Amino acid sequence: AEFEYAVPVADARALLAICDGPVVEKVRSLCPYEGMTWEVDEFLGANAGLVLAEIELDAEDQPFVRPPWLGAEVTGDARFVNANLAVRPFTSW
Predict the structure, then answer these.
(1) How many other CB atoms sit within 10 Å of the CB of residue 15?
(2) Residue environment code for 57-88, b if the CB has 16+ CB neighbours within 10 A, otherwise e
(3) How many domains does the chain have?
C-alpha cells in the first residue's frame, strides 16, 4: 500500500536523520493533459537523468490519451520501483 499526505518539514528532517541506507531523491511536477493529471518525477542524485510519468486510473482498462512527450511503458519493470532505484540506481545501468 502507498499513502500520500503532507508531512511537516521538521518531521521529515527527523525521519531522514534516522534513515539507514540510500535515499531516492526526486522532484515531482503535476502536468494536466486531456482531462488527466500526470505526476512527472525528475530524479536527482544517483538516479539523475531518469524521468518517470504516471497517472492514477479508476480502473485498469480506463482509456486515456497518451501525451506526445510520453516515452516507453515501464509499468511492471522492477528496475523502476523506488526501493530498487535506491540500491541499484539508474546511473549504474
Answers:
(1) 10
(2) eeeeeeeeeeeeeeeeeeeeeeeeeeeebeee
(3) 1
The length of the chain is 93
- Written as one string, the DSSP assignment of 44-90 is -GGGTT-EEEE---SSTT---PPPTT-----TT-GGGSHHHHHHS-G
Judge whether 47 lies within some domain.
Answer: yes
Q: Is residue 9 part of a domain?
A: no
In the numeric block, which cell numbers belong to residue 40? 512527472
pLDDT in tens, 37-69: 999 999 999 999 999 999 999 999 999 999 999
Q: Does the global pTM surpass 0.70?
A: yes
